[in-house]
Amino acid sequence: MNAAVNVEEKLFQNRYRVDAGRPHIRIKQPDLCRTECGTQSCTYVCPASCYKAEGNGSVTLITDGCLECGSCRIICNEHANVAWEYPRGGYGVLFKFG
Amino acid sequence: MNERFDAIVVGAGPAGNAAAYTMASAGLKVLQIERGEYPGSKNVQGAILYSDALEKIIPDFRDDAPLERHIIEQRMWVLDDESFVGTHFRSDDYNKPPYNRYTIIRAQFDKWFSSKVREAGALLICETTVSELLVDGNRVVGVRCDREGGDIFADVVILADGVNSTLARKAGFHAEISPGNVALAVKEILFMPQEAIEARFNITEDEGVVIEAIGKITDGMMGTGFLYTNKDSLTIGIGCMLADFKGSPNRTSPYAVLERMKKHPAIAPMIAGGEMKEYCAHLIPEGGFYAVPRVFGDGWMIVGDSGGFVNSVHREGSNLAMTTGRLAAETAIAAKEAGKGFGAASLKAYKAALDESFVMKDLHKYRDMPDVFHRNNQFFTTYPELVNRAAKTMITVDGVDKKTKEREIFGDFRQKRSLVGLMGDAFKLWRAFR
């Protein structure tokens, strides 16, 4: 069901002001995703597909397309492995319509 | 900033704007802090504006607020893969001013509301994120911003920082949100000529239709879809419980359920040709009565989504946000007038006002609803399928007599849910709704 949908095309319509080099969300211990987390639900629940499951079992995060919803932090409740802040003032997604 | 304020409001959504407007209008010295480029640029909603809550704050809002269409028809659809069974309620009474509800575009509406807040005398600073509350002992005394010299002090801080409620959580006022207490919704705005919208939805200029949908589109998860008519755009979205997304056996993504909804044969023709100009995601606090945290303390109050004030059964949120914002502001105004300070003893009047208002009364009425629906996902899976099959069986003319058709439908329900299951479901719904 997920494969046919290109979320990048959707995100392309949005306006962002990326805080280059200062991601507002961070995976605290990347090893934990590989060794402790069986489901890696962030890789399909994130509505902007910021989390990617890599071939070697790890999870990578690129926050540029983040919609600032907070889902990733909340679903990581067993491991609490997501350090989540809002972007600095003025940065991040800038909704034109909301 | 060395200046000291009576009140700081964090956030410029409906709750924060209602609070800041009410306090500034009463002469309090108010600072409002917004992290977006402008008020609205971080805010996401369906969006329906319920007039009543705003009228109580700005009675003549219709004079210049950016409103899209007033709603004259509400459709509720129960979808199977190929079909839907629906009820429509349309009344010309909804065409008589003052109108009861409108579709709005939040980026525009919030900007307008904020202009009223500033006219009332509040100071607004944008592009500034509050990183934490300044606490002295048990008492909130101000906020720390992500600007240089960013400590600002006030007698009371009103937290209107949205569903993630980052500040109260960091300060330890409440725990992390549970995935079972929030829905994750995604939506798109699709632009098309006004005439196309009016022809497709059987409406004239300024009239609007809202469609709420449950059923197969949520892929077995507890959730609802919606389609709203704006002036020259449609908003289409779908939200499901975050716990259901997380536990989805198909590892279903939110954008995948949205695409599936857009392709449904009953929906696709209505949105055909629409030009997608934005894709948004947002959490909706749906834990209801039992999920509302402590909402006040020494020097602080929580309003809007940040306090979990959403009536998920009736899809109401922004009206609860504005009402809680206004009630918190009125509490602060009374506290200042009484001169007894802004401690918890003084601010507990806010909780009493909430309990007396429709906000807590409605949340209490539906207190068991989130749990009942979440434990019984047949309401979102089995029943939509059964209802659609029953309608098809009765409506299709194929030479089978109606008595046999009735038996077939009843057998279908019994096979899928059993008699005990059916009666139990009816009882659960009755208990939760009464």
Automatic annotation (TrEMBL), chain A:
InterPro entries: 4Fe4S_Fe-S-bd (IPR017896), Fd_FixX (IPR012206). Residues 23-56 form the 4Fe-4S ferredoxin-type domain. One of its GO terms (molecular function) is iron ion binding. The keyword Metal-binding applies. Keywords: Electron transport, Iron, Iron-sulfur, Metal-binding, Transport. Could be a 3Fe-4S cluster-containing protein. This is Ferredoxin-like protein.
TrEMBL record, chain B:
The keyword tRNA processing does not apply. It holds the Pfam family ETF-QO_FixC_C. InterPro entries: FAD/NAD-bd_sf, FixC-like, FixC-like_C. Its cofactor is FAD. Keywords: FAD, Flavoprotein, Oxidoreductase. Residues 369-434 form the FixC-like C-terminal domain. Coiled coil: none annotated. SUPFAM superfamilies: FAD-linked reductases, C-terminal domain, FAD/NAD(P)-binding domain. It comes from the Bacteria. One of its GO terms (molecular function) is oxidoreductase activity. Part of an electron transfer system. Belongs to the ETF-QO/FixC family. This is Protein FixC.
